[in-house]
Design goal:
The protein is an alpha/beta fold. Helices cover 53% and strands 15% of the residues. Strands 1, 2, 3, 4, 5, 6 and 13 form a seven-stranded mixed β-sheet that branches. It has a six-stranded mixed β-sheet with strand order 7-8-9-10-11-12, with helices on one face.
């Protein structure tokens, strides 16, 4: 039984990893890393290390299936890279496993944070184990101080301390001290988060906000994709133009309806409103007239199409104020790999935050919000309302919303998320979801919420990923010290 335990731990840990990659079940992540770490520290042969990688790879391939807009060999290759990067903290821990005591306990969590930071800078923060803690609001408050990296550290620390206690026993001189220190810090983190939530004011100024969506029966399947790609022949230009005018009418009429029902800010989803470039000025003139006549803010998620050009698509967010002035015109800066990256003109100006009578309004578009350091620009700008048009697919709708909840906490800002496909939501600065509308649910998908307005200063918005970089420095220092002892 003792010889089989590492393999049982490996299978159990990998299975739990596959589950939490797809569904946020907070406790399972903690035990997934605990079991995987025990297996990593227990297998000593090259064959055992290869089996460990295979288990992580299978878990990754299963867990990420449907989360990326790629398939076939490209998907298998990409998940192989992700699995390899994921195993690096276990490798670092294994190299230094001869050392025991407190410093050895914190090496693994620092290495895991370092791995996730580097992966987020080379790709995005998608796949961070911190996101699996969605729903544990007291723990989620830690992101307001050190970002998602603090949650990653705590989970990996539990695995390292717990494995040491399991291996050596819970006596104070063995694993008991490490586990006791972890438990004390974890209790402080949880209690501080619960106090932060309890002290959140309930008398803040609020604004009625709404998100609207397009009519689903206006276009035949595939037509909006063809338009976005600029694949419209001169003979089709007039007929598609007529459909787009009806699309514009539907959005403007829906905006008037929500304004007259009391909304002061109406947000349109990403890529849901398409317009040919030579018709853009006329459309925006109509939109500014609606904003001025109804005395509302309109955050327009729109796609401007340049027919006949190599990169035909501009993915934009345009903010119009109640005077009919265009306050912001932002172009998405992080295209999703594959289809979107192949057609989109990438923006370069960074997050825009505009001072208005309703407060400081900022915004970004969908995948932009998967990059914590990028969205931190809005936190540094003191954003009082953050608008986020999105467009996703069924397989990621829950996970993607959950990721964006962390951006609200990190930067202390309320978020209005308008989804073309997926979940529209209103989120307060403490990560509490006030309202949700599911595109896939039957009936009207309009979202209406009373959103508290105002920025809550956070440490993370000021110092950014400092904690994560300190973990990188800690790993380098400890490995260097370990290597000098071997010489």
């Amino acid at each position: 039984m003792t010889q089989a335990l590492p393999w049982i731990s490996l299978i159990t840990g990998a299975s739990l990893l596959a589950i939490v990659t797809r569904v946020a079940v907070p406790p399972l992540t903690w035990f997934s890393l605990l079991f995987l770490l025990h297996a990593s520290r227990s297998v000593t042969t090259t064959a055992g290390a290869a089996c460990f990688w295979v288990a992580v790879y299978v878990a990754t391939a299963i867990g990420w299936r449907g989360n990326m807009p790629i398939s076939g060999p490209l998907y298998l290759g990409t998940t192989a890279v992700i699995a390899t990067v994921t195993t690096l903290p276990f490798l670092v821990d294994r190299i230094a496993f001869q050392r025991t005591g407190f410093t050895a306990v914190v090496l693994f969590p620092m290495a895991f944070v370092a791995m996730e930071l580097v992966r987020s800078r080379l790709g995005s923060s998608w796949g961070s184990i911190a996101y699996t803690q969605y729903g544990a609001l007291p723990l989620m408050q830690l992101t307001a101080f050190v970002g998602i990296w603090g949650i990653t550290f705590v989970i990996a620390w539990f695995a390292s301390a717990g494995e040491l206690a399991f291996r050596n026993g819970v006596a104070w001189s063995a694993g008991g001290k490490a586990m006791a220190v972890f438990a004390a810090v974890a209790a402080i983190v949880w209690s501080a988060g619960a106090i932060r939530l309890a002290l959140a004011p309930t008398d803040r100024p609020s604004m009625r906000v709404a998100t609207i969506n397009r009519p689903l029966d206006l276009f035949a399947p595939g037509e909006m994709t063809r338009i976005a790609e600029g694949r419209v022949s001169p003979a089709e230009r007039a007929s598609f133009g007529d459909k787009l005018v009806r699309l514009h009418d539907a959005f403007l009429d829906g905006t008037r309806r929500e304004a007259r029902a009391g909304a002061r800010l109406v947000v349109w989803p990403e890529q849901n409103l398409l317009v040919f470039k030579d018709d853009e000025a006329a459309f925006l003139e109509r939109a500014t007239q609606v904003a001025a006549s109804e005395r509302i803010y309109i955050a327009i998620g729109m796609g401007t199409v340049h027919l006949g050009e190599p990169l035909p698509f501009e993915n934009k967010l345009v903010l119009v104020d109640p005077d009919g002035h265009i306050e912001m015109s932002y172009r998405k800066e992080h295209p999703v790999m594959g289809w979107e990256a192949g057609i989109m003109r990438v923006g370069t100006g960074g997050i825009q935050v505009r001072a208005t009578r309703a407060g400081r309004i900022g915004g970004a578009i969908c995948f932009d919000a998967d990059f914590p350091e990028f969205i931190r620009q809005a936190g540094r700008g003191g954003t009082d309302i953050f608008v986020l048009p999105t467009n996703e697919w069924r397989g990621i709708k829950d996970l993607h919303l959950q990721m964006h909840v962390f951006r609200a906490i990190e930067n202390g800002m309320p978020v209005v998320r308008a989804a073309a496909v997926g979940l529209s939501a209103a989120i307060d600065p403490w990560g509490r979801v006030l309202a949700v509308s599911d595109h896939f649910a039957p009936g009207d998908t309009t979202l209406v919420a009373q959103l508290p307005v105002g920025h809550i200063p956070t440490l993370y918005s000021r110092v950014g990923d400092l904690f994560a970089w300190l973990c990188v420095a800690g790993v380098v220092t400890m490995l260097a010290h370990f290597c000098t002892r071997l010489i």
